[in-house]
Amino acid sequence: MLQGETLIAGTGGLTAYSPWFEACGDAATFAIEVSGRMSGSPSPGTMEVRVQTKRLEDSDAEASTLDRVGGGFWWAVASGVPEADPVTVSVARYLGFKELVRFQYLLATVSPAKEFWAHSRMLPPMWEGNCIACAVETELSNRAEATF
């Protein structure tokens, strides 16, 4: 069974977004597994993933793109590597989440006459529940359980 998403960029490239999901902490580590991509020489394209965040009342256009810890956006998954290569897993840590989070996928073609594709899946995020709201909610939940 093939799990994940296959994104195909035409000659003009592609920008795609994941659905918004709730941020469960102030910091998180995300991982993406890239199990296939178009090969060729010279490289036909690249895949870049960015992390965006916003408040519930903000529009999608008001979302901010986070810098990963250590600088830069997330990662660029380069093509030109044979499809038979092992699965690539890239990991990045982020701070400063608002209420909602989503991923932005950018596929760019290097050669305007070629298309580019990549197959990937996001692995479950590892949230760091260090925010005050999370600590208060946990404390209230613990107190409620203790009263029964």
Quick structural gist:
By secondary structure, this protein is mainly beta. Helix content is 10%, strand content 45%. It has a single domain (5-146), classed as Sandwich (Jelly Rolls), CATH 2.60.120.
Overall 3D geometry? globular
- What's the helical proportion of residues? 10-25%
> Would you state the CATH class?
Mainly Beta
Order of helices and strands: EEEEEEEEEEEH
The structure class reads: mainly beta
The tally of strands reads 11
Strand content: 35-45%
User: Which spans of ≥5 residues are poorly predicted at pLDDT below 50?
Assistant: 79-84
Radius of gyration: 18 Å
Q: How many helices?
A: 1
- The CATH topology label is Jelly Rolls
Q: What is the averaged pLDDT score?
A: 78
Largest sheet: 6 strands, antiparallel
SSE order and pairing:
Blueprint: E1 5-9, E2 14-17, E3 21-22, E4 27-37, E5 45-54, E6 64-65, E7 75-78, E8 88-95, E9 100-109, E10 116-122, E11 126-128, H1 132-146
Antiparallel strand pairs: 1-10, 2-9, 3-9, 4-8, 4-10, 4-11, 5-6, 5-7, 5-9
